[in-house]
Each structure stands twice: as C-alpha cells, then as structure tokens.
Hints:
By secondary structure, this protein is mainly β. It contains four helices and twelve strands; from the N terminus they run βββββαβααββββαββ. Strands 3-2-6-9-10-5-4 form a seven-stranded antiparallel β-sheet. The protein has a three-stranded antiparallel β-sheet with strand order 1-11-12, with no helix packed on it. Strand 7 (99-101) and strand 8 form a beta hairpin. The mean pLDDT is 97. Residues 29, 31-36, 47-49, 52-54, 78, 81, 83-86, 91, 163 line the site of flavin mononucleotide.
Amino acid sequence: MKKDLGVKPYLYPMPVLMIATYDEDGKVDVMNMAWGGICSSNMVALNLSEGHKTSENLKNTGAFTISVADVAHIKESDFFGIASANKMNDKFERSGMHAVKSEKVNAPIVEEYPLTLECKVVEIGNSVSGFRVVGEIVGVLADESVLDESGNVDPTKLNATAYDTFGRSYYTMGDKIGQAWNIGMDFMDK
Ligand SMILES: Cc1cc2nc3c(=O)[nH]c(=O)nc-3n(C[C@H](O)[C@H](O)[C@H](O)COP(=O)(O)O)c2cc1C
C-alpha cells in the first residue's frame, strides 16, 4: 500500500552541482545547486533564487561553469550552499579551493573539481518555475584521473555525490548495474 506524501519536490537522486561565476570585481563565487541539470544535448538549466549573488553574477557576465561535487570536496561544496557572497566577502577564499579563468567563457574553473562544463548564458529570466537560466555548453574539462583507457569519464573514478531531498543529506553513488539501451533488450524479443 502506498502512502500519499502530498506535493513535494521529491525525486532522487538529485545532483550536487557547483555553479562558479565572477562578480563585478572579478572575484570568484561558487554556489551549490541541486535544482539543475542537462536539458538538451548542449545545454544545462539552472533554477535558482534571483537574490543569490550567483544570479547577479550570471546577469552581469553571461557565463558560468558547472562542476560535479565529488566525495573528496563535499564539505567545501556544502559550505558553498550555506554561505552567500552577498554577506561573506571572502566566501571562496575560506574554502581553500583554487580557481583559474576558463579559456572559453568569462567564468572561473574550480581546479579541485574533477569534471567541469564551461557555459554561456543563452536564456535568463523568470519562468513559471521561478528564476531560470539556460546555459550553452561550450567546453568540458575532466581531470585525467577520472578518465578510462578510451578517454571517457568513468563514473566510478569520478566519485560523484547525490543530494537527497527527503532527508537533506549527501550520498555517494553506487556501482554499475547494467548497460543502458541494452540490459532491457530481453523484453524486446517476447
Ligand atoms: C544541497 C543544497 C542545494 C541547493 N540547491 C539550490 C538550488 O537548486 N537553487 C538555489 O537557488 N539555491 C540552492 N541552494 C542554496 C544556495 O546554494 C545558497 O543560497 C548559496 O548561499 C547561494 O550563494 P551565493 O549568494 O553566493 O550565490 C542549495 C543549497 C544546498 C546546501
């Protein structure tokens, strides 16, 4: 028997995404975002509060990077979701992480995160779901340490984290259990 839990944003897993931008003085800001992800083959969608410093930066620079938070940096990543650069002048410095400017967009790349998409803002504004930004992916950078022999990202090496919206916790990702577009093929022959 199923229990009706009401209207809640309950899906799992949610991603743990780090949105990095520059402010008007070229200072790095990073924010934690669970409500975002891929929305087409070369685009990502971000759903965020317009009051965040990140939102102001996105309007000003038209660019951001989006990184996957790995297990090794989950404390720093959580901090990026607690503190706001609106109130904390040295938010990024406090994390002890490092950033360099992207060669493709006017946004910082946080060096410690293993997988980063470089994005240009192509749509920004209020939508039925709130303040929303669509970014075009113009580059993807991955640490060699997370690549397999063929040069593809190996999720088991990435050590990505998932956000649990039910209990507001972070989880590690599990093992590979099957090949997509393949493991279900048995049912096709019935
Ligand atoms: C796990 C987690 C997920 C979050 N997801 C979002 C999100 O999807 N959208 C959003 O607007 N804020 C989200 N936040 C809150 C922002 O990260 C937070 O308000 C942050 O301080 C904004 O930083 P900024 O003002 O420096 O941009 C999340 C925070 C945490 C801890």
